[in-house]
Specification:
The chain has helices at about 5-15, 25-30, 35-45, 75-90, 95-110, 115-125, 140-155, 225-235, 250-255, 280-290, 300-319; strands spanning about 50-55, 60-65, 155-160, 170-180, 185-190, 195-200, 205-210, 240-245, 260-270, 270-280, 295-300. The protein is an alpha+beta fold. The strands form three sheets. It has a five-stranded antiparallel sheet. Strands 9-10-8-11 form a four-stranded antiparallel sheet. Strands 1-2 form a two-stranded antiparallel ribbon.
Length: about 325
């Protein structure tokens, strides 16, 4: 039988798994009686751990959320993952989280066993991150948590929004998901006033209080919200757009065309339509050429002219 202190640590480790444990299961794991389990649970409660118990045939013990954060027990892999995650967060895009992450990391590394500290330090010493060409916008963590809670609780949110051209508007939306893309955060929400889905940059959001009422969730605009956001954000800045018919199966072209460069529609088994765009007609012509398939331009004179210029340049280069 384990000593009381060691047994309490093992009991705490078991309770930290996301499930309920019956008294009999815990007694078997700890090699003690169910009475000892009840006494140990009471000791944990006295130490500040919120251990909840439910009665009945399917009842059991589980660790709940408390007013204060109690100490956590981590295995080796979990400890390394936490340390690496904190180090990554220290270089993130959430305002103020850098210092908080470094303080938490210092506490974790201070108590890491030597064998684990060597693994974490090896990752720090022998990995190099490529810096972003420019620092992205910082996001207020309070805004992120407010929006995340509204998504979870299906509560409408009101906020002042500053568009890319500086125009400020008041929005009242149904929030659904937060999407992280690089160093930017986006909110996917349904704007009831405009009757459509919208994507908002979180760093341009200033929430108003109080929020709105609860709402009944709608079907999401896409199964892959990451692709939905990346495509929507990219296409919003296109100055040139075109639709072309590509003489190749849609599934083949979809693998060659990034989501940020356009969309693919099936026409038949051997033909598809591609809607694409770019800041310049030359960039659009380049993307179309990379599809490596025959195509026909439909009513896009800028793209047709750019393709002719590109073809002449390639012809001269080839001699």
């Amino acid at each position: 039988m384990l000593e009381t202190s060691a047994r309490l640590l093992k009991l705490l480790s078991l309770l930290q798994t996301p499930r309920e444990w019956s008294g009999t299961e815990l007694a078997d794991r700890l090699d003690v009686s169910t009475r000892t389990v009840r006494n140990d649970v009471e000791r944990l409660r006295n130490l500040g751990y919120p251990v909840h118990a439910t009665r009945g045939a399917v009842g059991g013990y589980r660790l709940g959320a408390g007013a204060n954060l109690p100490p956590l027990l981590l295995d080796d892999e979990e400890a390394v993952a936490v340390a690496v995650g904190l180090r990554t967060a220290a270089a993130g895009s959430i305002a103020g989280v850098e210092d908080t992450s470094l303080r938490a990391l210092a506490k974790v590394e201070q108590v890491l066993p030597v064998r684990l500290r060597r693994r974490v330090n090896a990752l720090q010493t022998y990995t190099v991150a490529v810096p972003a060409r420019r620092r992205g916008p910082e996001v207020d963590p309070q805004v992120l948590t407010t929006l995340a809670a509204a998504c979870r609780d299906h509560e409408r949110v009101r906020f002042d929004y500053r568009a890319h051209d500086g125009t400020a508007t008041l929005r009242d939306v149904e929030p659904y998901r937060l999407v992280n893309w690089g160093r930017k955060w986006y909110l996917v929400a349904y704007d009831a006033q405009r009757g459509d889905w919208r994507t908002f940059r979180v760093d341009r959001i200033e929430p108003r209080t109080p929020g709105g009422p609860r709402f009944a969730p709608r079907p999401l605009p896409a199964e892959d919200l990451a692709a939905y956001v990346s495509r929507g954000v990219s296409t919003a800045t296109w100055h040139y757009r075109a639709r072309i018919v590509v003489h190749a199966p849609a599934e083949v072209i979809a693998q060659r065309l990034p989501a940020t460069a356009g969309s693919v529609e099936v026409i038949d088994e051997q033909t598809c339509a591609v809607t694409t765009g770019a800041d310049t007609a030359e960039s659009m012509a380049m993307w179309v050429g990379l599809l490596d398939a025959d195509f026909t331009v439909q009513d896009a004179p800028e793209l047709s002219a750019a393709l002719r210029r590109l073809a002449e340049r390639y012809r001269r280069a080839a001699g």
